[in-house]
Amino acid sequence: MNQSNGNGHTNQHTLAESITISGVGIHTGAPVNMTLEPAEPNTGIIFQRIDLPEQPTVKADVDFVIETNRSTTLSNNGASVSTVEHLLAAFAGCEVDNVLIKIDGPETPILDGSSQPFVEALQKVGRKKQDAIKTWYTIDHNIYFLDENKKVEMVAMPADTFRINTLIDFNSPVLGTQHAQMSNLGEFNDEIASCRTFSFFHELEFLLKNNLIKGGDLNNAIVVVDKPVSDEQLETLSKAFGKEKFAVTSEGYLNNLQLRFPNEPARHKLLDLVGDLALVGMPFKAHIIANRPGHASNVEFARKIKEHIKKNRFKVNVPVYHPDKPPVHDVTAIEKILPHRYPFLLVDKIIELTDTYIVGVKNVTYNEPYFQGHFPGNYVMPGVLQVEALAQCGGLLAIPKDTEDKYDTYFLKVDNCKFKQKVVPGDTLILKMELKNPIRRGIVEMRGTIFVGSKVVCEGDLTAQIVKRTKND
């Protein structure tokens, strides 16, 4: 697994202000109020049951999913919240990362059965950019999920964006085989968010008999009628929902709603998948192809993706070094920026440089002057020089550009420094420095990692100060 390039880093976002959304839960029928509030960076999406003693919380994470029957339910610390997928899909589509949801019931409001009302609420208050980096993860090989009993197949393939293709087939003469796609998250709000949940007529009868869908009023679900129904059945359903007598259209849908898209059911399945995959808890880029997705399968697929990310997270920042590719800065250009010279210039070239991170290269050879006295006969690069190499690389990131003034960077502190593997002659060090926070008042906080191949040999948090040189320096 590698960190995505180009758009691999963005800023995290929260809400610009609080907003309250009210409605009823589709299964419980209970009125519920949700207040969405801004949250600190790295919080994620948190639900808080303010109607319960101690007001417990549960994070929107696949580790806390306890139920996937017809919707996705989270539970932890005594807090349980169901039907979270439509709201989570809206957060994903609007790219809102950190929110505290204060909710006074066990189920989010169903509203019109889609994500559209949530999207509209989020767009109304707007987003607030936060001083924290959002890392998008990518995968470097296919991740598969298969459920032969349900005939579900899913795969996540390497891609430079987050895209989904879904295929549904319920052996229904009405629905037939439907396909939906989303090329990137930017399409979600216009193409996917308004697509409502759907149910088969015979399922409604079962749910009513079992005292479920108490909050359903048929304004929030498309009803598919793919089997013959009697006038008596239609009348019973009409009375249950307090409506005028229903009829079946020639297309095989109950005449309660007009389709927003010809393939609205397939698009809603894609919507559910976006919401359920948000439970991975880390934004990632992949091309998802899902055949016959459902909440249970979506959640198990999310578990596999999260497990893969966690297992390979130590590799997530491994840069790719192509020696034949021209560098961003060669050593001659580096000397014009840094004051260091032989034998203390420890960066040979810069191969990547953005506003938030930099990647440099240091080739370690037998001819390094320190090898004469540092473990002669067992040549090991001193750890302090590895950290110095990182610092110099970070200086190239932090020093102001496009100015004739000269600057130096000075260490203020080094935290959490670990040396995981010795560095010896012949090693090529890949030096990566990432901004942890925006530079303020000349103070730079960075996360540094040194790789040899795909292995981490050194890492730590470095803080430095940028100081403008005086004319006498």
TrEMBL record:
Ordered alphabetically, the record's keywords are: Cytoplasm, Hydrolase, Lipid A biosynthesis, Lipid biosynthesis, Lipid metabolism, Lyase, Metal-binding, Zinc
What this protein is reported to do is described as: Involved in unsaturated fatty acids biosynthesis. Catalyzes the dehydration of short chain beta-hydroxyacyl-ACPs and long chain saturated and unsaturated beta-hydroxyacyl-ACPs.
Question: What is its cofactor?
Answer: Zn(2+)
Stated EC number for the protein is: 4.2.1.59, 3.5.1.108
InterPro entries in UniProt: FabA_FabZ, FabZ, HotDog_dom_sf, Ribosomal_Su5_D2-typ_SF, UDP-acyl_GlcNac_deAcase, UDP-acyl_GlcNac_deAcase_C, UDP-acyl_N-AcGlcN_deAcase_N
Give the residues annotated as coiled coil.
none
Q: Which GO terms describe its molecular function?
A: (3R)-hydroxyacyl-[acyl-carrier-protein] dehydratase activity; metal ion binding; UDP-3-O-acyl-N-acetylglucosamine deacetylase activity
Q: Which pathway does this chain act in? A: Glycolipid biosynthesis; lipid IV(A) biosynthesis; lipid IV(A) from (3R)-3-hydroxytetradecanoyl-[acyl-carrier-protein] and UDP-N-acetyl-alpha-D-glucosamine: step 2/6
State one Pfam family annotation.
FabA
Taxonomic source organism: Lacibacter sediminis
Compartments where found: Cytoplasm
- Record's protein name: Multifunctional fusion protein
Which cellular component appears as one GO term in the record? membrane
Organism superkingdom: Bacteria
